[in-house]
Write a structure and sequence with these properties.
mainly alpha; 4 helices; about 90% helix; elongated
Length: about 140
Amino acid sequence: MSFSLLLNFACSLYMTGLIWFVQVVHYPLFDRVGPQNFALYSRDHAARTVFVTAPIMLLELALSGWLLLERPRDVPPAWLWSLAAMNLALFASTFLLQVPLHEKLQSGYSRDAIQALVASNWIRTLLWSLRSVALGYFVWRSGR
C-alpha cells in the first residue's frame, strides 16, 4: 500500500471530522455569542483555529502533490487529478470565501456574515467528505 495514499487518507479524515463539527456545531453557535464581545471572540477564534487547521491543510496539499508524483497503481490517474483539484478547491474556498468572512466578523457581529459563513462552509464540508470517501476506497482497494 502506498504510504502517501494512507497519509492523504489520514489527513482527509482528520479534516472531515473537524469540518463537520465546525459546520454542524461551531459556526451555527456564532450567532449565539451576541454583539457585545463578538469581535474579541472572533479574533480569538481565528488565532486558535489556525493551529488545528493550517498544518494539516498544508500537509494535505503537499501529500496531494506527492500522490501525483508517485502515481499509486491502485488509483486511476483521473482520480489522482480529481483529488488534487478538490484540494485546490478547498484552499480556494477557504481563502476566497471563509477567510474574508472571518475577517469581517473580527470587526464585530454580523448576522449576514455568520449566515454566509455557515452556507459557504458547505463547500468545504462536502469536498472533504468526498475526498475522505474516495481516499478510503482507494486505501481499501490497495489493501485487498
